[in-house]
What does this fold into?
Amino acid sequence: MNFTLYNMRRQALNWLLPKRCFQCAKPLDDDRGPICKTCHPELPFQDHYCTRCGQNFSANTDYCGHCIKTPPAFDYCFCPFKYESTIKELICKLKYREHPELAKVGASLLARELIDNNIDSPDALIAVPMHVSRLRTRGYNHSALIAQNLSKTLNIPTLDNALTKLRKTTPQARLSLKQRRKNLKGSFELKKIINAKSVAIIDDVVTTGSTAEEIAKILKKNGVDYVQVWGIAHTL
Ligand SMILES: [Zn+2]
Ligand SMILES: [Zn+2]
It folds into this structure.
């Protein structure tokens, strides 16, 4: 990334920032994120992860054994944090405790890591869709809110209403990997022609990657060459 673009993104990142640290509530002393300088190093960063599926693993290679044998339909996965401590609290509040405004905090944390790690920009972002009945109950799609905030900061368009979730599925957290794949099969449908060649799927948390796998297959069948998955956290 060239220096001017890098600085423009830094300035855009400021737009996202809340005034107080999400962890300690002290006024922010740094213009780079929603967590202060003291708390930032304490965040549960992923130390070594597979760049294909995002899973934490210890071997000194880019890809985990599973991705070497059976690579997923998506090409790259970036989830900078482990799903624990402050990050877990942030995501749980955003998702289950009616705090849609925290999508801004999550997007800001993710944007900072995307910039610092010089992750390639896709042509477009696509949020994991939610079934209409769940959307009615919750009132908002947290992944779409993260995508909208990222879009403003990174200046990448979102593909709104391009993908729809056809049926309500059992929450993935209760299922095994095999059950997750079966649960999601045929549950998403593309509603619009996609003109982008590279797309990043936006989710809050990536677990087994089954949701991203299903969406990536659809995108690749419809002309997308390169699919990334961007999440705030990875649970594995
Ligand atoms: Zn703090
Ligand atoms: Zn992997």
Q: What stands out?
A: The CA atoms of residues 114 and 120 lie 8 Å apart. The mean pLDDT is 87.
